[in-house]
Amino acid sequence: MVIVDSDLLERLSSIAAELPEEARSQLLDLMSDWRGEARVAPRIPYTELLSLSTRDDTNHYGHARNVSATGVFIETPAAFKVGEELDLLLTFLSERDPVRLSGQVARVTDDGIGVHFDENSCSRIGMLDTTHSRHALMMRHQS
Questions:
Q1: Per-residue pLDDT tens for 22-46?
Q2: DSSP secondary-structure letter at 6?
Q3: Span between the terminal Cα atoms of the chain, in Å
Q4: Which residues contact 20 (CB under 8 A, 6 or more apart)?
Q5: 50 partner at 20 to 30 Å CA-CA among 25, 87, 93, 125?
Q6: Which pLDDT does position 37 carry in this prediction?
Q7: For 83, which DSSP code?
Q8: Residue 74's closest CA among 41, 35, 108?
Q9: What are phi and psi of 106, to 5 degrees?
Q10: CB of 67 within 8 A of CB of 43?
């Protein structure tokens, strides 16, 4: 497997968003093989309902499959494009207030979308790590 720098993958994702549909699909399929080892943060299971809205204030809902300090995969029937900016609202049983994050669609699959958190969410990313720990501990005690 070829391992490609995550910054390069992000630049290629932006380029893919500008390509015609068939070329975009081919590039994203090729890139999905390269992403296998590109994760920089561990992912934890997270199956709560979350809300997401586009910059034009269209609201959607989905279920997160997993979440990390850098991104989230969301199972949703809604259609999105790579590069589309989103606002996310994640709720955790272990937290009173939801976690608000924003990011860009980095990957689109038949099951949903991969969202990479943007720089505006950096101040909340550290809090997300702490929230993950509490959430995982709470879920372990409930099993």
A1: 888 788 777 766 655 445 566 666 6
A2: H
A3: 37
A4: none
A5: 25
A6: 46
A7: T
A8: 108
A9: -100, -20
A10: yes
Q: Which residues pair with 57 in a beta bridge?
A: none
Three-state SS at 125:
helix
Which single residue is written with the structure tokens 């380029």? 15
**pLDDT at residue 71, rounded to an integer:** 83
Residue 110 main-chain phi, psi, to 5 deg: -65, -25
The type of residue at 67 is V
Please determine, for residue 1, whether its predicted confidence score (pLDDT) is greater than 50: no
- 26 membership: H or E segment, kind and range: helix 21-34
Cα–Cα–Cα angle for 22, 40, 118, nearest 5°? 65
- The Cα 125–Cα 77 span in angstroms is 26
List, in order of start, the domains of the chain with CATH numbers.
Answer: 1-38 (no CATH), 43-142 (2.40.10.220)
Check residue 18 and give its pLDDT.
Answer: 86
Alpha-carbon distance of 14 to 143, in angstroms, equals 41
pLDDT in tens, 92-129: 666 677 878 899 998 898 889 999 888 777 556 656 55
Task: Express as a percent the part of the chain with pLDDT over 70.
Answer: 67
Total count of residues recorded for the chain:
143
